[in-house]
Design brief:
By secondary structure, the chain is an alpha/beta fold. It has 19 helices and 23 strands. The two termini are 36 Å apart.
């Protein structure tokens, strides 16, 4: 039987007396972004399944009365820790209705987070095992750039603000190392709690798995990390079918729900925050490539949600390390002035400007694996004086020096440096004021928690920077409660209204074609966290 075929062959008949499959095989692979693309062109071209789509599949499986169990087969699973934790919750919900078995050819930190929502964890005898905790690596370019005649001005508030240190320094400083180590410790603490709860052991036992030097599935079984060693063919019976083969049966079982009492709007804020329209930078540059959340686009979506009569609450989903201080403040204003309750849900990142926009939400929900905080400000520029000399380049200037202070041709003068420092201190004061007002903390306490320092979701909860741990489903539930809606009230993904001679998706496609190395225009003051943090 070929489980990859979305239809049944003549020799794939169900056993006698069985009219419908009793087990479904659900494949998990890829990164699982949170929501479907919000414009038609991106949605048409995307081949990546979203977490939203996966949740819909699992909900249909939960409601299938003829289904006994689900085999969740992990492939090339590349989701972030926060996304893996959200999938864990989906599988746990499914497990309350059906028997759920996770099949893991690769036992690693991320796949185990997601699979821990299943009641049973199974690996083949030949499984690759890498359960060694979390770590990260960051390459510092300061010496490399200096050898090529390029230096970097890096003005920051305050000591933990590390957004530009990879360019200005030769090595990681003590403050940055301290905050990153604390963040990784927070992630490992969350992992230990998740796996201890899943396997019914103490947290001390689960923590011991990280130091146990596990190298095989048999060793993982002996340690209690998994429940069985078996190959896939030993788990699949004659009444099992792939999800695609039963899609029609599932579609019939759960009709859609109409928005009668009201609905919840979901507004995505994904990528570096910039002024103008959202776009995607196709250049794979460190920090500057990938999606960019434009303040015009996000603010327009928030205004549309606020003006929609059927929308009773708004969920702002943030997966961003921040960016432009101006753009962050413009988005913050739309959240702060909303008469409808706004719930912020944090994804992998909600740092710096990504935290700024959340401060005045009614409720902030973070994953225990979220990287948040980084309440600080940074400004800087490359200095090409030596580079120009070596290569025979001679920039000539006419007019006021102050008008050219951000030119890369020379470093700041003392007067200019004082001017920039004054500006970023003013932005930092505004940032800490926003946090103090929104989170009901003193400015002194916010400054203690700020200074550019990052926090894990659990640490942020312990310090009052977020309200609870969870994922988008948690945020939707809180939004429905705040709006007095029933628990099954529908949600809709918000895009700005179409305008101009071209449809909105065509305008965004045209924006994406613009190649921009520095995405912030003339802005130099950033509430930005270096997003090059990829745990392994």
């Amino acid at each position: 039987m070929n489980l990859k075929l979305p239809f049944l062959k003549s020799d794939d008949a169900l056993p006698g007396g069985v009219t419908r499959p009793t087990w479904v095989v659900l494949d998990l692979s890829g990164p699982y972004p949170e929501r479907q693309p919000t414009n038609p062109l991106a949605g048409l071209l995307s081949r990546t399944e979203s977490l939203e789509a996966l949740a819909a599949r699992i909900e249909k499986l939960r409601g299938a009365p003829w289904l006994h169990g689900v085999l969740v087969r992990f492939g090339e699973f590349t989701a972030t820790p926060a996304t893996a934790h959200a999938i864990r919750g989906l599988l746990a919900d499914l497990g309350r209705e059906k028997r759920v078995v996770a099949y893991l050819p690769q036992l690693n930190m991320l796949s185990l987070i997601a699979a821990s929502g299943a009641g049973e964890l199974v690996s083949p005898e030949s499984a690759e095992v890498n359960v060694s905790g979390f770590g990260l690596e960051s390459t510092f370019l300061g010496e490399f750039l200096k050898k090529r005649g390029i230096e970097f001005e890096n003005l920051r508030v305050r000591e933990y603000k590390a957004a530009l240190t990879r360019f200005s320094e030769e090595r990681m400083d003590d403050h940055n190392r301290e905050q990153l180590q604390a963040y990784l410790s927070g992630l490992e603490g969350a992992w230990v709690r998740d796996l201890a709860a899943a396997r019914g052991v103490s947290e001390d036992v689960a923590a011991g798995w990280l130091a146990a030097d596990l190298t095989s599935a048999q060793a993982a079984l002996a340690a209690g990390l998994i429940t069985k060693v078996a190959y896939e063919d030993e788990l699949i019976g004659p009444a099992s079918r792939p999800f695609a083969a039963v899609a029609d049966l599932l579609m019939l079982s759960l009709p859609g729900k109409a928005a009668k009492e009201g609905r919840v709007a979901v507004v995505p804020l994904v990528g570096t925050i910039i002024t103008g329209k959202s776009r995607n930078n196709p250049i794979p540059l460190p920090l500057l490539g990938g999606p960019m959340a434009g303040s015009d686009t996000v603010a327009a979506a928030l205004r549309r949600a606020k003006g929609d009569k059927t929308t009773k609450a708004i969920v702002l989903y943030v997966n961003s390390g921040g960016g432009s201080a101006l753009a962050s403040d413009l988005i913050w204003r739309e959240v702060a002035t909303s008469e409808k309750p706004v719930v912020v849900v944090m994804g992998e990142y909600a740092a710096s400007g990504g935290y700024y926009v959340a401060t005045h939400a009614k409720t902030i929900v973070a994953s225990p694996y979220t990287l948040t905080g980084s309440i600080g400000v940074v400004s800087g520029k490359p200095v090409l004086t030596e580079f120009n000399r070596r290569h025979g380049l001679n920039p000539e200037r006419v007019g006021r020096d102050r008008a050219l202070m951000y030119s890369a041709a020379r470093p700041y003068s003392e007067d200019e440096r004082e001017h920039v420092e004054k500006g970023i201190l003013e932005v930092y004061d505004r940032f800490t004021t926003r946090v103090a007002e929104g989170r009901r903390l003193t400015k002194e306490r916010v400054n203690e928690l700020g200074r550019g320092r990052i926090w894990s979701g659990q640490d942020a909860l312990d310090r009052g920077l977020v309200d609870e741990l969870g994922d988008l489903r948690t945020g939707l539930a809180r939004a429905r409660e705040l709006a007095g809606l029933p628990a099954d009230a529908p949600a809709w993904n918000v895009t700005p209204k179409s305008h101009g001679p071209l449809p909105e998706f065509a305008q965004e496609a045209a924006q994406a074609a613009r190649v921009t190395v520095w995405p912030f225009g003339g802005e130099r003051v950033l509430t930005w966290f270096d997003q090059d943090v990829r745990v392994r």
